[in-house]
Design brief:
The complex is a heterotrimer of chains A (317), B (213) and C (639).
Chain A: H1 18-50, H2 70-99, E1 107-114, E2 117-121, E3 127-129, E4 131-135, E5 140-143, E6 151-153, E7 162-164, E8 171-174, E9 180-185, E10 198-204, H3 206-217, H4 226-237, H5 240-243, E11 267-268, E12 273-274, H6 277-285, H7 287-290, H8 303-313
Parallel strand pairs in A: 1-5, 4-10
Antiparallel strand pairs in A: 1-2, 2-3, 5-8, 6-7, 9-10, 11-12
Helix pairs in contact in A: 1-2, 4-8, 6-8
Chain B: E1 11-13, E2 20-22, H1 31-60, H2 76-100, H3 104-136, H4 143-174, H5 184-209
Antiparallel strand pairs in B: 1-2
Chain C: H1 11-24, H2 30-35, H3 39-68, H4 77-113, H5 121-143, H6 168-196, H7 209-241, H8 254-288, H9 295-308, H10 324-336, H11 338-354, H12 361-384, H13 386-392, H14 396-426, H15 432-458, H16 475-505, H17 543-546, E1 569-573, E2 580-585, H18 592-608, H19 612-630
Antiparallel strand pairs in C: 1-2
The chains are: A alpha+beta (317), B mainly alpha (213), C mainly alpha (639).
């Protein structure tokens, strides 16, 4: 049964944190209880089938003898035993619930849901999208606001899910006890591209994380070469800057993702395509092909201008 | 709900020799009575949920209620309206007891007086209370405004429905459809009207009284 | 439907039948077709209409499964997918399960309790027409490419004007308010019928369990449906007039929608499940030749499910960030609601083991139901455990669970009922061999379609996504699920063909082909317009097994049979001990319920299109329709 969760599968049964392990442990308890219940019921069904008779006749004798054990059986098997099992499971679930999310928070990250991507803000001013980096072994608190509709944050290998709800202040603590990359995606239906609202959590060793966070808070590097410099100018003057921010430039739009260190990202459009110069070119030319319904319109730039912008953006490490 | 009879005898034969059963009935023996009871049950649930929504949003809004500088509702006019609406239940009740005693005049007069009182309440809601509030805030101002106008409007719609039922009952009364043994329509209208009056107690308490607590 | 097969041809019976026929027969013609108040005609129409929507919802599900068969497919596109999964849910809940189960209730409740019609025959006709009209209304959205697209749960703010400005959501809200009229009227009708129209002697603890199931369903509708109606009204006010109920920026709260929706939505699950439980309890005794074990416990179980079902709605909201203490109370109620269901399951198992089952199609479908429902039940208990629920909430694990519960407790019992009661409706037996083929295809197809979805949920696949990435490793399970869905569809098709083939060419059934225990087998097959030559007096819980004089289809007056030939009348009895009380004269056919429905349909479209002048006109026309309905004419007199 566990065979399916190799590779990239974000499985609840492949826990990478204490909380996820608690959930996994709970699952196996519930699973074996369920197996026992289904086995008992199936046993009765098979026992009844063994007592079958071949045909129904209108003159069959109706057996009117009272079933002497019937009522007692119904009360014991239908109420008393299930009641005991259910009470035990309820108590067990409360114990697990009480243990969840414990630990001191060392770092708070804001993960804001947008249709259909995530904005990730760190306390030191670093802003990125769709990819969260956290330090291994440290408890990170995620604040989960939303810019528009309800979304739900779910990275199965690390944590249970929690919804982003307008007007609410929902929080979720996450800790990864191994370095690694953990996939997740929005779990609450949020419209046309709900399927393409992926989130990636990468747990890094503490020193690597600190280095990354420092770099990520820096403004964008100056363009290197004429093409890229052109690209930056075009980006700042064209409608790109109306929606996107590149820190250190005059582009300060807030509707779309911050692109200051775009070239460090692994995918475009919250997981629709891997980040490559070609994919970026296609995405800018017509985002509606890659992700129909996304807010970004097809570009008004010429192909040469797009090439320049791509040259600039692929430098933003 | 009117039923059809093919002949006018009070008792009918069931086909078991010698067994006769009544063919007219009122109170809980009548289907119409039960239909009205359950209709009121489902309508009361609707009101309960609307009132629950009011309190849900109130407590989500924090301590200042009504919010955004809207004044706590004034009680004078609503209490006068309450007196008028509740007093309408008396003539309606007398109309019902009247027809049960075979008194058609009491029926007609009671229904008419009840109608006038109910209509006065509705006119005061739409003509005085609402315009006053609309000067201060509207249903699109904020959630409080939406709640105020929806809850009072919803109750007003029920008063209107009650008035139309009253009109129907009066038409039937003037046609001579009722006597001491036939008046299911009167009975059902009476029950509905009392329901509308009782619900007003909850609307009044929710909208007008609790903000003063 | 053709007329009566006359029972015992004694002289009195013959003259009784002639008189009843004269009073109850509805003349042919359009007026009678539109105006019929015969609960059997109406019940059968509910059944056919609901099954037509079952086919529509099934086609939608096959399209959904085709889109999801492999990673990165582009069969439907995101908008088409979202409209289809939304309409699939709306259709299966509101236009298939509720109408078909109400249809069986309409047809069989009066027969099982020994009445000649429902308490409010015209309300019954009206409820059916409104169902048809709201079905037409909701499906007309496909014609303009604007079907509801935010799921049957339709959460705000996504379904608010800001994020879904087009009329998709207005179709949803107006359509469900409209349909609510039908369900509420039908529910009140069931309650009054069951309380007041039972045959003499059918005291409270002799009421057939199927009838209890319909009663529990009706009670839930009366108290749960107002929540959906209110939620939809508030949504329309927000969308069309800029009110702020769900608007967090102006003092509203999107969670208000979720509370109202699930206050309705969870009981809705039981609304669909309880009649299915009742069907199982009705079928098992006949096919094992033994009375049901634990009657009282089953009835208490049905009613407790209906009651506790109102206390668990928040378990659909375990991930919205409510305090743990709130969650714990709801969790407890959610664990508790399993007990009354377990009681019923073990009562069925006890009856099966105590008797000698005959494994023909009706019982096979019931056994399949028990197996599938128990799997849905144990996964339901898993959701009561808060941390596990928060992990798999909104994943395919939930999709698997809800289909095990709903297909288990609605579809399989409905198919059992088709094979068990079909002969009563058509007068002819269905082919049992093809029934078994249909069962095995459906059983295997269902489990292949939905069992892998449990795994998909555990492996992180969220609900309501129109496609997924190849790297995620979900492709194989999805392909299995799609193949299963098509096998399930073939199995359903076999029964549909079987029905239409058998209704004209099957072997004649006779009054009581199975020797059933309840009063529907006292009527002829198909039943006469007046249902029974004499309204029977019952002396036990299984009258057809206990009272040999019922076998002829006309209990003589000396045994308590009442011909009641004086007028279009049935017998009303006291509520608890079913003593004869009153002869009730029932209304005749009327075209006004149909006309009122037409006015309301115009109103629905006028509101949809913001045409307020037409709306007012339609309201006036509706009031006119009501006046026409109640206007005294002919011999009609006030009672």
């Amino acid at each position: 049964m566990v065979a399916g969760c190799g590779g990239d599968t974000p499985s609840v049964l492949d826990p990478r944190s204490d909380d996820a392990r608690r959930v996994e442990g709970m699952w196996w308890v519930l699973f074996w209880i369920s197996c026992a219940v289904v086995a008992v019921v199936t046993g009765f069904l098979l026992a009844a089938a063994r007592r079958r008779r071949a045909e129904l006749h209108v003159d069959d004798q109706i057996d009117r003898r009272p079933v002497s054990w019937g009522d007692r059986f119904v009360v014991i098997a239908g109420a008393a035993v299930p009641g005991g099992i259910l009470a035990g499971t309820f108590a067990f679930s409360l114990v697990v619930l009480n243990d969840m999310g414990s630990g001191d928070r060392n770092l708070e990250i804001e993960v804001e849901g947008h249709t259909w991507w995530w904005e990730v803000r760190y306390p030191n001013g670093a802003v990125t999208a769709n990819e969260i980096r956290i330090p291994v072994g440290e408890t990170v608190e995620l604040a989960l606001p939303t810019a528009d509709v309800i979304h739900s944050f779910w990275v199965p290998e690390l944590q249970v899910k929690k919804d982003h709800i307008p007007g609410a202040d929902n929080r979720l603590s996450v800790v990864a006890d191994h370095a690694g990359r953990f996939r997740g995606q929005c779990a609450e239906f949020c419209g046309l591209q709900h399927a393409h609202m992926e989130i990636m959590v990468e747990a890094l060793p503490a020193d690597e994380f600190d280095d990354w966070l420092q770099r990520e808070a820096q403004p964008a590097p100056e363009p290197d070469g004429a093409d890229a410099a052109d690209g930056r100018r075009i980006f700042e003057r064209a409608s790109c800057a109306g929606c996107h921010t590149i820190r250190g430039t005059s582009a300060e739009g807030t509707l779309g993702p911050d692109l200051t260190h775009l070239a460090n990202r692994e995918t475009l459009g919250a997981g629709v395509v891997p980040f490559t110069p070609g994919a970026l070119d296609d995405f800018i030319t017509n985002p509606q092909d890659a992700k129909p319904g996304v807010s970004m319109p097809p570009t008004e730039l010429t192909p040469d201008q797009v090439d320049a912008v791509v040259a600039y953006l692929t430098e933003l490490e | 709900m009117a039923a059809t009879t093919t002949h006018d005898a009070l008792l009918g034969e069931t086909g078991i020799p010698g067994e006769l059963l009544p063919q007219r009935y009122d109170g809980p023996r009548a289907f119409g009575w039960w239909g009205m009871v359950w209709l009121i049950g489902t309508e009361a649930t609707l009101f309960a949920l609307l009132i629950a929504s009011y309190f849900y949003l109130r407590f989500r809004n924090g301590p200042v209620w009504p919010p955004d500088g809207i004044a706590t509702p004034d009680l004078a006019l609503p209490l006068i309206m309450t007196a008028i609406l509740w007093s309408s239940s008396i003539p309606v009740h007398m109309a019902h007891t009247g027809i049960r005693a075979g008194n058609l005049t009491r029926l007609k007069v009671g229904l008419a007086v009840g109608f006038v009182l109910g209509a006065t309440f509705l006119v005061m809601t739409l003509g005085v209370e609402w315009p006053e509030k609309l000067d201060e805030f509207g249903p699109t101002t904020n959630a409080y405004g939406s709640l105020f106008f929806t809850l009072t409007g919803f109750h007003g719609a029920h008063v209107l429905a009650g008035l139309m039922l009253s009109l129907w009952t009066q038409v039937r009364a003037w046609q001579g459809a009722f006597d001491e043994s036939r008046h299911l329509t009167v009975q059902n209208f009476t029950m509905y009207w009392h329901f509308v009056d009782i619900v007003w107690a909850f609307v009044l308490a929710t909208i007008y009284l609790t903000p003063h607590l | 439907m053709t007329a009566t097969a006359a029972p015992d041809a004694s002289a009195t019976t013959t003259s009784t039948v002639e008189r009843l026929e004269a009073v109850w027969a509805e003349p042919p013609g359009l007026g009678s077709w539109l105006g019929t108040v015969d609960h059997k005609r109406i019940g059968l129409r509910y059944f056919y209409t609901g099954m037509a929507f079952f086919v529509a919802g099934g086609i939608e599900s096959l399209l959904i499964r085709t889109q999801l068969a492999g990673p990165d497919l582009d069969v439907l596109g995101p908008e088409g997918f979202n409209q289809l999964f939304s309409m699939h849910g709306i259709t299966m809940m509101f236009l298939f399960a509720m109408p078909v189960l109400s249809g069986f209730g309409n047809y069989f409740v009066p027969l099982m309790i020994g009445a000649r019609d429902m308490a409010f025959p015209r309300l019954n006709a009206f409820g059916y027409w409104v169902l048809v009209a709201s079905g037409i209304f909701l499906y007309s959205s496909f014609l303009v490419g604007r079907a509801p697209n935010n799921g049957w749960f339709n959460y705000v703010p996504l379904s608010g004007e800001a994020f879904t400005p087009a009329i998709n959501i207005d179709y949803y809200a107006v359509g469900l308010i409209f349909l609510g009229i039908s369900s509420t009227g039908g529910a009140i009708n069931f309650i009054v019928t069951i309380l007041k129209l039972r045959a003499p002697g059918m005291i409270v603890n002799r009421i057939p369990i199927f009838v209890w199931g319909e009663l529990a369903m009706a009670l839930q509708i009366v108290f749960a449906l107002p929540a959906l109606t209110l939620a939809s009204v508030l949504l329309l006010l927000d969308r069309k007039f800029d009110f702020h109920f769900y608007d967090a920026d102006s003092g509203g709260d999107p969670l208000l929608w979720q509370h109202l929706f699930w206050v309705f939505g969870h009981p809705e699950v039981y609304i669909v499940a309880l009649p299915g439980f009742g069907i199982a309890s009705a079928i098992i005794p006949t096919w094992v030749r033994r009375p049901i074990v634990g009657y009282t416990y089953i009835v208490i179980g049905e009613l407790s499910v209906a009651l506790i079902g109102f206390g668990v709605w928040v378990h659909h909201m375990f991930a919205v960030g409510l305090p743990n203490i709130t969650l714990s109370f709801i969790s407890l109620a959610s664990f508790m609601v399993a007990i009354p269901s377990a009681i019923q399951v073990f009562a069925w198992l006890a009856t099966l083991v105590a008797g000698r089952p005959v494994l023909r199609a009706p019982l096979l479908f019931v056994l399949g139901f028990i197996f599938i429902f128990v799997i849905g039940g144990v996964t339901g208990v898993m959701f009561a455990a808060i941390p596990f629920d928060q992990a798999v909430h909104d994943s395919y694990f939930v999709v698997a669970h809800l289909h095990y519960v709903l297909v288990g407790s609605a579809v399989f019992p409905i198919f059992a009922a088709i094979y068990h009661w079909g002969p009563k409706i058509t007068g002819r037996l269905l082919n049992d061999r093809w029934g078994k083929v249909s069962f095995w295809l459906m059983f295997v197809g269902f489990n292949l379609a939905f069992f892998p979805q449990h795994l998909l949920g555990l492996f992180g696949m969220p609900r309501r996504i129109y496609t997924y990435d190849r790297d995620l490793g979900w492709g194989g399970y999805n392909m299995a699920s799609t193949i299963g869905a098509f096998i399930l569809a073939v199995g359903i098709l076999v029964t549909i063909v079987n029905w239409f083939h058998s209704r004209t060419r099957g072997a004649p059934a006779g009054n009581d082909p199975w020797r059933g225990e309840t009063l529907e087998w006292y009527a002829s097959s198909p039943p006469a317009h007046y249902n029974f030559v004499t309204i029977p007096t019952v002396r036990g819980r299984e009258p057809m097994w206990d009272q040999p004089e019922l076998a002829g289809g006309a209990q003589p007056p000396e045994d308590g049979g009442r011909p009641l030939t004086e007028g279009h009348a049935t017998l009303s009895t006291s509520m608890l001990d079913a003593r004869p009380q009153v002869i009730v004269h029932m209304p005749h056919a009327s075209v006004w319920p149909f006309l009122l429905t037409v006015a309301l349909l115009v109103l629905a479209f006028a509101v949809l299109l913001d045409n307020w002048a037409l709306s007012v006109a339609a309201v006036v026309a509706s009031v006119g329709g009501l006046v026409g309905w109640y206007w005294p004419r002919g011999q009609t007199q006030e009672t």
